[in-house]
Design a protein that fits this description.
With 189 residues, this protein is of the alpha/beta class. The protein has helices at residues 22-45, 56-73, 75-78, 81-97, 125-128, 137-148, 152-170; strands at residues 10-16, 107-113, 118-123, 186-187. α1 (22-45) runs antiparallel to α2 (56-73) and α6 (137-148) runs antiparallel to α7 (152-170). The chain is rod-shaped and about 95 Å long.
């Protein structure tokens, strides 16, 4: 409310536990590594004495080991920083589309994804016409830096204050201004 008190802009804060189900991708990578381990083991352990024989128990063992190792060590591959940013940005845009449009197109979404330790700031078209796209990197960085220090709330408050100050400069509060969007924090499950 305080950040919106001097501006006609509307701030929406949404917090989500995660933006993507990374575990399923890790399991898929583990399954692929396990399958490769099984196939390689079958090829290595085949015997051609009186026909071709395969050691299926050895293959199963290497499949299980491959699955475990692939699932465990795939996290850095699956959760690359650029991919995390893209996934969080995409989820933020989906959330922004669900926000009811304001009269002057002056809504700003502050989207925080906890599992990914990342945030996104999305501005509506009325604001984007007056402020450059890279302007939102500073408040977004405030949130991310605070999250890295386990001070999530402080970072969000700092970003809200900075965004409210900037919006007040470009979109001062009108005498007939009404609060078009709720001021409560949204939890996106």
């Amino acid at each position: 409310r305080k950040a919106e008190s001097a501006t006609s802009g509307e701030l929406v804060v949404t917090i989500t536990p995660r933006s993507h189900r990374w575990l399923w991708e890790q399991i898929e990578v583990g399954a692929a590594v396990g399958l490769i381990g099984m196939l390689v083991s079958l090829w290595i352990t085949r015997q051609n004495d009186w026909g071709t024989y395969y050691n299926f128990s050895q293959s199963l063992l290497w499949g299980i080991v491959g699955f475990a190792l692939g699932s465990f060590f795939s996290r850095p591959i699956v959760m690359r920083p650029n991919r995390i940013r893209a996934v969080v940005w995409s989820h933020a845009l989906e959330n922004f589309k669900r926000i009811p449009p304001t009269k002057a197109k002056t809504a700003v979404l502050i989207f925080v994804s906890l599992k990914e330790n990342w945030a996104a700031v999305v501005a509506d078209t009325g604001i984007a016409a007056k402020l450059p796209a890279d302007h939102w990197h500073a408040p977004q960085r405030m949130i991310v830096d605070a999250m890295m220090s386990a001070k999530h709330a402080e970072g969000i408050i700092q970003a809200i204050t900075a965004i409210g100050t900037e919006l007040a400069r470009h979109f001062p509060r009108e005498s007939d201004d009404v609060n078009e969007l709720p001021d409560s924090v949204n939890i996106d499950l």
